[in-house]
Amino acid sequence: GLIPSAGCLITILFSRRRLMRFRDLMKLDTHESKKDFVKGVVGFAAIIAFVYLGFRYVGLENLQGKIESAGAFGPIVFILLKASTIVIAPLNGAVFYLVAAPLFGLGRGIVYSWAGDLLGAVIAFWISRTFGIRIVKRLLSQKMLKSLDSVLWYVGIWKRLIFARLALSSITEVVSYGAGLSAIPFTQYFWVTTVW
Hints:
Blueprint (H helix, E strand, L loop, with lengths): L4 H8 L3 H11 L7 H25 L4 H7 L4 H14 L6 H11 L1 H26 L1 H7 L2 H14 L2 H10 L4 H10 L4 H10 L1
Helix pairs in contact: 1-9, 3-5, 4-5, 5-7, 6-7, 7-11, 7-12, 9-10, 9-11, 10-12
């Protein structure tokens, strides 16, 4: 890990309220109502189906052509597909950075890539904040889950989140899901994520 798990959890969860919130999010609640469980499973399945069908329809080798053929909706398709690579963490979004400038020009390509990253980060935050660790375990790869404990030290306070956004940019998915599991207010998370 990046730092020892016990030390980072004690540091970030310094108040009793934050510790209780974290415990509630991390444990698998066996008393969870069937309605909440079904809602989580349906939401998870809808996200997986959207991403699967999107990539099946588009195909990475034909990505540029498909986005171009979308015409005026090309930027929206691009932003949604880029966001999905953060929500479904094992998907690699690097190809979108490569095709953004040839598709839209350098300036708009950067803006659309940023918008997709921001949208994906916000969705990931709310998924983990709403459904907790149960869904996060299904959306992150095993390798990413191993780094989640260490990342939690960075994402509970906005000043550390700035550092995490800059230094841990290769695991932005873990940072986004981890922030949702922490006690950081959404407004602080949103502004840090928007700027960095």
